[in-house]
Amino acid sequence: MKLGFSEAEEAFRAEAAAWLDAALSGPFADVRGVTSLVEQSDRRREWERHLGAARWSCVGWPSAYGGRDASLAEQVIFAEEYARAGGPARLNHVGIELAGPTILAFGTEAQKARFLPAIAAGEEIWCQGYSEPNAGSDLANIRTRAWRDGTDWVVEGQKVWTSLAQFSDWIFAIVRTGEGTVGPKGLSFLLVPIDQPGVTVRHIHQMTGEAEFNETFFDGARTDAGNILGEPGDGWKVGMALLGLERGVSTLGQQMGFRNELDAVIDAARANGTAADPRIRQRIAQAEIGLRLMRYGALRMLTATEDGTASPAALTYKIQWATWRQSLGELAMDVLGQAGEVAEGSDYAFPLLPNLFLYSRADTIYGGTNEIQRNIIAERALGLPREPRGNA
Ligand SMILES: Cc1cc2nc3c(=O)[nH]c(=O)nc-3n(C[C@H](O)[C@H](O)[C@H](O)COP(=O)(O)OP(=O)(O)OC[C@H]3O[C@@H](n4cnc5c(N)ncnc54)[C@H](O)[C@@H]3O)c2cc1C
User: What pLDDT was estimated at residue 345?
Assistant: First the structure.
């Protein structure tokens, strides 16, 4: 197992760090450190374009589509340097981490040429239309329907929890195209433009005070017949491959962001004296150990993935980081005490650490809840009997 990075990889790190620092202390200093997913969205859209123009937007993609052909290790390095430099939350996170790689894996040449350069250039922002009011963990229960009408697909139904749909130009949606089908059969993976009369996006306010996600209604929405990944009926296969990305290696680089958050907790504990409390010290040490374990786990997965042997350990990573971050949020509140309960001003705007506490409640839900992750580990890594499924 590799425990560090090669000289060439460290040279890549230095180049990325220098570029990021120059951009974020120069023309984009105003978005440095913006962790909110909704604040300064216009400036963060410009930032996406700036990254794209310098080909730092999706470093792992082929250069033909605007990337840098970066190895997985280099992608992790870039994510680390991005967090270290205080790069703002990526407005096109879903396009870069989920839509793009899925189009690369399943798209036709025409689809790749149409969609990938626009994502890499920061010109088209994407969101994810999976969940529905009755299809979350039980995703195969999707009811949103689509059917062919001339040269179009027509879409009817409702998605929910669609993060960043209010800023998005496109949504990828799993929809039911097989009439009378139930469960994973008869689903298709469509790419649908959002700016059209048949699509309505309605904010949902969350307890952080922000409205990051939305309800998305399709009411006779249309998309070109060619905007389907795979064949009609391939929606489950394509959709699950995308979820593998959402839960897997695409998240290995996020640990530098966790480092920043843990450091903020330690600074707060030092500042208000709670660092002297042995119970708090113990929990900080525990958090530090957890972070280091994640780091070595990530390096292990990276080594295995680069060797082409997907490690079952990768299946444990989502639950590991989500649970770690949630307890860090709880520790942050115990460090802050009552001061952590006071919003800044009247805008229900919480500072970094209370926001971490509130937001991290969602970490064990999105991308598959902890319970669902345990099922996946049991079935796919440990080979235990499959959970009974009603409509499989
Ligand atoms: C911040 C955030 C952003 C999101 N962004 C998006 C997005 O952009 N696009 C999108 O499509 N979705 C998004 N989601 C939705 C997310 O994917 C779902 O919330 C998640 O899959 C859980 O589904 P659910 O909310 O319907 O809960 P349910 O599936 O109803 O689950 C309720 C509870 O039951 C448990 N449970 C359910 N089934 C089982 C089982 N078989 N075994 C054991 N326990 C079980 C769950 O673990 C959970 O505790 C987002 C969610 C959050 C919190």
Answer: 66
The gap between the terminal CA atoms of the chain, to the nearest Å, is 39
Active-site residue identified among 97, 210, 246, 261? 246
Integer Cα distance of 194 and 315 in angstroms? 33
CA–CA separation, 144 and 315 (whole Å): 29
DSSP 135: B
Radius of gyration of the chain (CA): 21
Whole-number Cα distances in Å, 163 to 10, 27, 255: 34, 27, 22
0.85 exceeded by the pTM? yes
pLDDT tens digits, 367-377 = 899 999 999 99
For 240-286, the pLDDT digits (tens) are 998 877 766 567 678 888 999 999 999 999 999 999 999 999 999 99
User: How far does residue 291's CA lie from ligand 1's centre (Å)?
Assistant: 25
Q: What is the DSSP string of 294-325?
A: HHHHHHHHHHHHHTT---TTHHHHHHHHHHHH
Q: What angle do CA 163, 21, 33 make, to 5 degrees?
A: 40
Phi/psi of residue 184, nearest 5 degrees? -70, -15
How many whole angstroms from 98 Cα to the centroid of ligand 1? 18
